[in-house]
Design a protein that fits this description.
The protein is of the alpha+beta class. Helix content is 37%, strand content 15%. It folds into 3 domains: 3-111, no CATH class; 122-230, Ubiquitin-like (UB roll); 251-271 and 283-578, Glutamine synthetase/guanido kinase, catalytic domain (Creatine Kinase, Chain A, domain 2, 2-Layer Sandwich), CATH 3.30.590.10. This is Glutamine synthetase.
Amino acid sequence: MQIGAKAARLPVSCPDIAAENPSARASKEAARPVSVLLLGKQKYQALETSILDLWKLGSNPRAAFSILYTANTGLTSLFDSFPPPPFLVIFMTICQLPPSVALITRRSLLIPATTMGSQITASSLPQLLEHDTCVKLAGIDVDGILRGKLVSKKKFLSIAEAGFGFCSVIFGWDMHDQTYLKELKVSNAENGYRDILAIPDLSTFRRVPWEDNVPFFLVNFFDPETKKPIAPCSRGLLKTQLDKVHAKGYGAMAGAEYEFYTFRNPNSDSASPAGFLLQNPPHQLPSLTEGMFGYSLNRPVHNKDWYYDVYNTCARFSCDIEGWHTESGPGVYEAALEFGEVADMADRASLFKYVVKSVGINHGITPCFMAKPKQGLPGNSGHMHISIVDGDGKNLLARDTTDPEAKWNDIAALSDLGRHFLAGLLEGLPDIMPMLAPTVNSYKRLVENFWAPVTVSWGLEHRAASIRLISPPTSKPGATRFEVRTPGADSNPHFVLAAILGCGWRGVEKKLEIPCPPLALGQDTGGAGDVGERLAKSLKEATARFMRKDSIAREIFGDDFVDHFGGTRENEVRLFDEAVTDWYVLQRLHIEPAHHVPLLTSSF
């Protein structure tokens, strides 16, 4: 069998094949398939020879391996039976390929960060980066935005363990690089916006496929004097909450779903939609598609290259998409990210937004993750699923046998631990709202009649409640979980998961009881039968409750974090309160005879 004949059967996530030059394709037509009839070392030697042969003929490394894997089903037993030798580990690291055929099958020849990254140590970095000249590093600010830089390989190797100085101003200004009106403890003019300590997390290694596969690592931020995580470091905050669960020998799993609007970059002299909007009203920014049509199979075809580029690039960047479809609204898409360990899930959720924005640049498409981009249309949610597992991976939210005496049928299959966790979520929800809905715009989404939760509420398979319980009989016991539906797509996933885990685990430790009955099916949140407490209607209201001296947020996260993050939210509220928006002008600008215009303009 000729390799070229099989190449057409490659999975869609290997688009590199299509970009190969004709001479390379012709050479592969005559190439022989690798033999996998030998054992152990001989098999890998044959594989190494074939990979190098194809590489020399002009194939890029991913394409070379993809062709060989597709043409030889015997590689399944090879990867299952023998650990790959160093050459193949390095090769697969370069190409973002997994050392397990189970992962190859499931991820279409693409490696997750946790598989290779967990094996990386400071001593292995020189070999890993042998053919690189630079490394990209990034940290995450309180708004969930990646802030980073490119450094030389020499510099990176010198700071990989001890860390390096990173300007603290990223925690002293907002997402538009405007310093906070009220200066905060971590970074301010008085301390000179001092450097904080940034230490690369080697387990987050991946390569940036749209930037020539430059190596990439996330960093954690620490106080340079105490060497403790700084309060607003979102990765550190989540780790602190996760450590409480780990202390009991348990783990936490999570999955994220993000909705976002897409806009076509306008034909103008501006370099981006941001420039366009300086001269034009937002409604003139064209949507990628018009009208409402969730789960459409046809709409993605209109922008097929972008649609598949997002899916494939997410996989290559180790933030795999599990489900990818249109949502109801003009240019609206939703991605469900692959379920995984909580800390890794939070990283992948942050990186997903980075991928979508980066891929869009090459296609003239701008994504929008704000909670409510358009009045009268659905908003962008950022739902989070969470479950607790033991050391063997058993789901601890599931009950071994159905409880015939459960207070409500909805929790008949939910374990005692799960009930306490749910109670903690419900009790803490009003106090941690800024972590789930962090912007003024967030609360435009949280209104009645848009499938958005507005009260402290829950229910079995209830998509209008704040917390949707997913458990038997509608799911398998192992899939028992909570879907927290309050967060918007504008939230920082590390803060969201820290809030969920912190509140839920507080309920477990205090053995809290569920404070309100479930919503009945067909009963809407905020309706007459919903007895749950109304959640904050504005960021100002939510922040005031978050920052109260007796707030549950202070109990869980401490004063330093609440004061800092709350201060950043107060800053947003103040900026909004002082802004004169188009709405006011449109409401108050009356068309009058010309001699009245000066009086009107002076009274805006």
